[in-house]
Design a protein that fits this description.
Chain lengths: ~100, ~170
């Protein structure tokens, strides 16, 4: 039987990999994928606690997280398309029109 | 070693390795393919936790819908200046990776030392993750959030169409 801690550790490692990806990568699409990675690692934590506590609320929350992730992906990719149309790049260092 | 622990170790190691590959590959399409591998590993981990419905939804929604959207957008935007996006390793990135490692160690330390409710607090019945149980929960206890979700999705559809439209007028 795998203890809950192991699942939490896998989730924490994946979350940190995603966070480092968001900080270090400059390609907007890869940053987006790293965000999906972070969302998924949190889902693993929720499902783990849900299974070990015998409570379905965690899995319902995963359901909602997936809905929000789908909405976020649709909107975010639309923003990336609009940006690419305007600046012809997805390099986040060059997208600085709001920088003062 | 039981089948369950073999599954866990194999899936979690493949999952972590594919997560590393997602953030380190230079070509976004290869990152996207590794991300799909990661999603499948997570679906397998959900199955070891007896969350069948979430595992199926993970493959359907994430590996199916969301990743198709990603790959579609990557293919749509042909990066002519891909070589200018060449990301070199600078000292800033090393600092970021070091900080990430520190946070990871901290989290693992907290997880290992935290007090958990009790040793035998779970029943591990397969019933919790069934469609039947989740459906009953969703339409009774979580009815309002469920309805609000539909509002969110409508707003997302309208927003996506508006943002990706050719002319903003």
């Amino acid at each position: 039987m795998i203890p809950l801690q192991y699942y939490l550790i896998v989730s924490a490692v994946m979350f940190v990999i995603g966070a480092v990806g968001v900080i270090t990568r400059r390609n907007a699409l890869v940053v987006f994928m790293a965000i999906e990675l972070m969302l998924n690692s949190v889902n693993l934590t929720l499902v783990g606690f849900s299974a070990f506590l015998g409570d379905a609320s965690g899995q319902i929350l995963v359901f909602f997280v997936m809905t929000v992730a789908a909405a976020e992906a649709a909107i975010g990719l639309a923003i990336i398309i609009a940006l690419f149309r305007k600046k012809l790049t997805v390099n986040l260092d060059e997208i600085n029109i709001l920088k003062w | 070693m039981t089948l369950e622990s073999v599954m866990f170790y194999v899936l979690s190691s493949i999952g972590i390795a594919s997560a590393v590959l997602v953030v380190t590959r230079r070509n976004p399409i290869i990152s996207a393919l590794w991300l799909i591998v990661n999603f499948f590993c997570l679906a397998g981990l959900y199955l070891t936790l007896h969350a069948q419905f979430i595992a199926v939804i993970q493959i359907l929604v994430y590996a199916g819908a969301i990743m198709v959207l990603f790959v579609f957008v990557i293919m749509l935007l042909n990066f002519r200046d891909e070589h200018t996006l060449f990301e070199r390793v600078t000292w800033k990135k090393n600092v970021a990776a070091g900080l990430g490692l520190a946070v990871m160690m901290e989290m693992i330390y907290i997880i290992m030392t935290a007090a958990y409710p009790s040793a035998h607090y779970f029943s591990r019945s397969g019933y919790i993750g069934t469609i039947e149980n989740l459906g009953v929960q969703l339409f009774t206890k979580f009815l309002l959030p469920f309805e609000v979700t539909s509002l969110l999705l409508t707003a997302a559809i309208v927003g996506a169409i508006l943002l990706a439209k050719k002319k903003m007028d």
